[in-house]
Design brief:
It catalyses: N-(5-phospho-beta-D-ribosyl)anthranilate = 1-(2-carboxyphenylamino)-1-deoxy-D-ribulose 5-phosphate. Keywords: Amino-acid biosynthesis, Aromatic amino acid biosynthesis, Isomerase, Tryptophan biosynthesis. One of its GO terms (biological process) is L-tryptophan biosynthetic process. InterPro entries: Aldolase_TIM (IPR013785), PRAI_dom (IPR001240), RibuloseP-bd_barrel (IPR011060), TrpF_fam (IPR044643). This protein has 214 residues and is an alpha/beta fold. The protein is built from seven helices and ten strands. The protein binds the ligand O=C(O)c1ccccc1NCC(=O)[C@H](O)[C@H](O)COP(=O)(O)O. The site of the ligand O=C(O)c1ccccc1NCC(=O)[C@H](O)[C@H](O)COP(=O)(O)O has 27 residues, from β2 and β8.
Length: 214
């Protein structure tokens, strides 16, 4: 089994970005969602993107965002991938993909097997579906919460489209998560932080090492 691709999400500083690049992560995630402690203003996203250019692929993360906001960020930060982490339906995902001509990843909340089956409705609309833990009712954010779901729901999963695993991953559990699910991509945010929105460079390095330790 090949090692999974790795996305470090919610980078907010040049030091964290450099740590992700040094650890050979495949993707750097920039969160554009004001309620998040990882939210980046346009100028900050553009500055990180300029530093990242050609060194790591950039994923811009949006939550039920207006197309005009996505357009602003795509223009300022030349994203490689657009990640939609809200309640976007397959038609909305397909429209964003057509509008920007970039790969679109759709995050989907999982707490039971049905959630995984339902995610398959994004085949043909999204380029990848990202399984993340379902947030509790009333949560202020739909992701980046450090919550794990039952990985055995994905054991032996035969997917109709590319997929990735997120939700409560950390250096301590990512090797086990990959062993159980055989995820082709893993995505982490709070598990490599010392405080919400503050990435820890040593944890980024450890996470990448453990994700490949299969
Ligand atoms: O990270 C955020 O602040 C965030 C805010 C709103 C929607 C999604 C968000 N993060 C999405 C990610 O890609 C995370 O990596 C994923 O949800 C897993 O987060 P975590 O459980 O903290 O590793």
């Amino acid at each position: 089994m090949p090692a999974p691709e790795i996305k470090i999400c919610g980078l907010t500083s040049p030091a964290a970005l450099e740590a992700a690049i040094a650890a050979r992560a495949d993707y750097a995630g920039l969160v554009i969602f004001p309620p998040s402690p990882r939210h980046l203003a346009l100028a900050d996203a553009a500055a990180l993107a300029a530093r990242a250019a050609g060194r790591i692929k950039l994923v811009g993360l949006f939550v039920d965002a207006a197309e005009s906001l996505v357009a602003e960020v795509v223009a300022a930060a030349s994203l490689d991938v657009i990640q939609l982490h809200g309640k976007e339906d397959p038609a909305r995902v397909a429209a964003i993909r057509a509008a920007f001509g970039k790969p679109v990843w759709k995050a989907t909340a999982v707490s039971a097997r049905d959630d995984i089956t339902r995610a398959e409705t994004f085949a043909g609309a999204a380029d990848l579906v990202l399984f993340d833990a379902k947030p509790p009712k009333g949560a202020a954010m739909p992701g980046g919460l450090g919550l794990v779901f039952d990985w055995t729901l994905l054991a032996g999963y035969k997917a109709p489209l590319p997929w990735g695993l997120a939700g409560g991953l950390s250096p301590a559990n990512v090797a086990e998560a990959v062993r159980v699910t055989k995820a082709p991509l893993v995505d982490v945010s709070s598990g490599v932080e010392s405080a919400p929105g503050v990435k820890d460079e040593a944890l980024i390095k450890q996470f990448c090492r453990e994700a490949r330790a299969i």
